[in-house]
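Re: zinc ion structure - here you go.
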Amino acid sequence: MKFNIPILMYHQIRDIKEKEHLSSLAVSPGSFRRQMKMLNLMGYKGVSLTELAPYLSGEKRKKVAGITFDDGYLNNLTHALPVLDQLDFTATCYIVTERMGKTNDWNLRLSQQPLMTKEQIHEWINSGMEIGSHTLTHVKLGEVDAATAEHEIVDSKNGLEDIFGTSVHHFCYPFGSVNDHAMKTAQKAGYITAVTTERSRCTDHEDLFRLPRVVVARQTLPHLFWMKIATGYEDKKRKR
Ligand SMILES: [Zn+2]
């Protein structure tokens, strides 16, 4: 049976300063609230990857949209969590294990923003939200040697599971950088899904270790947001 399931990709939820460059991935708290309300009005339930998995495999059918946040910014907790809570939505936040409580220092051209501490991640989980792994140090998996890739993919999972006492079944490739080895390693490590930065809604024949997403950026106005969810707009941006 055919379906199109959007997995929304967010990074930061915060207001930005006029002078700030390269902040297109920071969605304002007001826009985020309007987007989640629109999703709800369109009849979709926003869900974490664990809740989404049976829909991706075709076992369950309903209007659902995956909600994901990359990197683990503190502003996900302060600005996104209350909105998700209010609508009874869940979401997956991909944590960079060795950067908890630090900043997004893998890209110094971007404004440095605080990432959640362990305590704050506990708060995120205790509120019914989910965490996934985004490696140990935010490396380009498609460009590092095999041993490094395995270390980053496997040990980040084990580390998060030890610290938070929860299963970590979902993975996100940093910078969208992925190759066959990284996909196989993620599968062997026991993850159930892995998301990329490839653009599209998910179809009924998707590789669970190379899931495309629907990018939501600062300039995604309400009409465009609707188009990305309800039409083939994002699917046409797909490269592979
Ligand atoms: Zn990232």
